[in-house]
What does this fold into?
Amino acid sequence: MRCLLNYFALLLLVPLLLAGTMWVRSYNVSDELCIDLARREGSVWSYARHGLVAGRGRLVYCRRGWSVHRAPNDPPAVHIELNAYKPIEPWQGYPTSTSALGRWGFAA
It folds into this structure.
């Protein structure tokens, strides 16, 4: 039983160490991870870009959507992008309120 408890404690410790390392790193480098996913809706491909931006101890999640007309038998590939920048305040690039459909963000 004690071995099982130690195993679960170790499993909880690993994400905590990774989060701490990323938080310390965010004061030196701002990282951005974006993933573009597409799904077919009739003759239109609907895209959604999900992004995480970390900088100066903050984390921002954002989502943006758009549509593209493509051949129905030509599915687009999943696009993953990882960028590193000089340290920035990540929430300044995103308005607090927007009227654009499908665009929103969350800062923590």
